[in-house]
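[Amino acid chain]
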Amino acid sequence: MKLNWGTSIVLAMCCFIGFIMFFVLQMLSSSNDQDLVTENYYHKELLVQDEIDKANNSAHLIGDFKLEKIKDGLLIYFPSSIEADKVEGEVLMYRPSDKQKDFRFPIQLKNHQLLIPIQFLEQGRWNVMIDFKVDEQSFAYKKEM
């Protein structure tokens, strides 16, 4: 059977439409929801300058934050330049793929270290957001893990 150019164009368009529909149906039937946007998006946008100031304060600390995964959980090392007994704040563990697994953990330092137990953590990507105050000065640190 010989195809003319008109029939070939129609067949090519039908194949392309079928290709696109395959991906649309696959995305609609996907059970893996991605929760990449927070609930209070507009309210958080108003606080951007505060976040920038906190990050700048953290950049001026002597020493650096360090995250280490150990068998007991996630060990967070705080800079030695801060006074550990004056730190108050929390660690937000944010899971981009499932907001039901997000949790907050209060900061209680021992030797400039904070341990988040393994039972709270699952395999996969986490965004660690540390937000704390020392003597009324605010600090923030963010890291993907």
Observations:
- The CA atoms of residues 44 and 139 lie 17 Å apart.
- The mean pLDDT is 86.
- The longest strand covers residues 87-94.
- The first helix runs from residue 5 to 28.
